[in-house]
Amino acid sequence: MPVQLLPETPSQTAGPYVHIGLALEAAGNPPREQEICHVMAKPGAPGEHILLMGHLYDGNGQLIRDAFLEFWQANHEGVYDTGYALEKSFNCFGRTATTDVGEWTINTVKPGVVKNALGFPMAGHINVSVFARGINIHLQTRLYFDDETEANAADPVLNLIEQPHRRESLIAKRCRVDGKLAYRFDIHLQGESETVFFDF
Q: Domain Intradiol ring-cleavage dioxygenases spans what residues (predicted)?
C-alpha cells in the first residue's frame, strides 16, 4: 500500500495576539518574572548606552500597533555572545513591541565593528526581525547609525543594495530623548518609503 504523505502546514500570520503571548507589558499586563524584554543593556553594561526607538508603518502609511520586533547584535567590542541570561549586564538579544501609539523602544549599547565571513569589516549594526499580522514569514532587516558615515560607506552589506538612496532606509537618525543619546529608526513594510529587507 503506498504511503500517503500529508501536505505541508501553511504558514500562519503572527498576531494579532503577539502582545498577549510575548510582550505582556505592551498589552498592559505585568511582565513575567523570566522575560526577554526591551532592556538589552543594564546600567552597568560596558559601552555607549543608547535608546533605540521608532514606528512601524504599513503600506498605507498607517501605524501598526500590535507588531513584535526582535534584535540581535554584537556588543561594544564587536563580539556576539549566544548565551542569554537575565542576570547579565548585557545580552546580544532583545525583544520589544509597538505600543498603542505605534512606537517601539529598546535600551542597548552601540555595537562595535564585526567582520563578515570573508574577513571584511562591517559597520556597527543591529539585526532586526519584524513580526506582524499579515506577514507569514518574519521580515529581516538591519539598523545602521547615521553618525558612522565612513564605516557605512564601506559596509559590504549596505553596498549590496544597488540603489544608493534605498540604503537610507536602514540608517537610524541620531537624536536625544530626555538628555539621553537615542536613534530613531522607522520601519515601512511597503510603499514608497519601504525599508530594505533581506533574505538571510
A: 52-80
Neighbouring CB atoms inside 10 A of 130's CB total: 22
Q: Which residues pair with 24 in a beta bridge?
A: none
Report whether 140 contacts 197 (CB < 8 A). yes
Residue-level pLDDT at 12: 64
Global pTM reads: 0.88
**How many Å apart are CA 187 and CA 108, to the nearest integer?**
19
Within the chain, where are the H helices? Answer: 18-22, 149-154, 164-167
d(CA 78, CA 94): 17
| pLDDT reported for residue 92 | 97
Show the low-confidence residues of the chain (pLDDT under 50). none
Which residue has 567582520 as its cell numbers?
115
- Maximum distance among all alpha carbons in the chain? 72
Three-point CA angle 14, 36, 80, nearest 5°: 100
C-alpha cell at 110: 552601540
Q: Give the closest residue to 157 by CA, choosing from 143, 147, 138, 174.
A: 143
Which domains, and CATH codes, for the chain?
18-188 (2.60.130.10)
Are 116 and 80 contacting, i.e. CB atoms less than 8 angstroms apart? no
